Amino acid sequence: MKEVPITFKNVFVFIMLLLMTFGFTWLYINFSTTIKDEPVEETIEAKYSKKGLYLYPRFEIHVSNSERPSTVSKEEFESIAVGDKISGYMKNADTFVTEKDIQFEKALGIPIFVVLYFAVFFMGTAILKNTRFIKKSRKLKNVLHTILKVSIYGTLTIYILTGMVFTALTATNIFHKLNQWSLTEVKATVLGGDYNETRTQRGASYTTYELFLLYEDEEGKDYITKKAVTGTTYNKYAIEEAIPLLYRNNDVYDTFVLTKDTNEIWPAFLNLYTFFIGFYFVSLFAMIKAWRKKKNKQSEKYL
Q: What tens-digit pLDDT sequence spans the chain (303 residues)?
């Protein structure tokens, strides 16, 4: 394992990591203790399912006095109707959040916590390992070496498991889309569309597209979904125009736009999500290659 000498640069990096960890911890605790300070009850103005290109469906509502949609569980979504009252909390005076929103935001903080604390643990232990006091004690040096290995392997394990989870979810979504026998085709009506363009400081841009679609199941019950689509599909259909849609027989909210034109399909593989999945597999391959190389060197050493 590469040594981390006690230099100004390494100490500075450690202090910055320590401050970042402390700051994020404070923000997380502050969020957890203040998010429920303003309990409110608002009127539901709209409800719809939301389906991305790769993951499972989610459920959103729009309420009065809130500029952003809020998420609810599937069970709650099916039990409420437009015009009903729903309990929640106000965030930043203009954003209504539900228990589901709070749980999601807290869950997002967990991997960040793990990475930051492991990084601080690793950097602090690596620097401490090179102090004169530790170098004089072989026992303490071995303990710190073990702690370093646990920190590294712990971070790698979380990284690998997280990537595997998202890969499994994506593969499951693709499996459902390709299994035509488990899908029902309907004609949905385009109610409107929405897109979000993100620009970088260097002028590059990344745009996501979504269509609001109204469709019926086989029993004639109406549903509205906010379906992620490619830019080609988004520009192909106008408001009030019919669009072919598929939904899973055992989950009417799990929808897929029926696309036959290659120009509608290939852009789905060129976005940030697929880039990160691709990066994950490349990094995983690099780690396996480095591990095998290290093992081969160790084997040659003992020959």
A: 556 666 778 788 888 889 999 999 999 898 888 888 889 999 999 999 999 888 889 999 999 888 889 999 999 999 999 999 999 999 887 889 999 999 988 888 888 888 788 888 777 777 777 666 666 667 776 777 777 777 778 778 888 888 899 999 989 988 988 888 899 999 999 999 888 776 665 655 677 889 999 999 988 899 999 999 988 888 888 899 999 999 999 899 999 998 877 777 777 777 778 888 889 899 989 888 887 887 777 666 655
Secondary structure tally for the chain: helices H, strands E:
8, 10
Which residues, other chains included, contact 175 with Cβ-Cβ below 8 Å and sequence gap of 6+? none
DSSP string, 208-277: EEEEEEEEE-TT--EEEEEEEE-HHHHHH--TT-EEEEEEETTEEEEEEE---SHHHHGGGGSSHHHHHH
Distance CA 190, CA 170 (A): 26
In eight-state DSSP terms, residue 181 is: G
pTM summary value: 0.75
What lies within 8 Å, CB to CB, of 39 at 6+ separation is 87, 88, 89
CA distance 223 to 253: 8
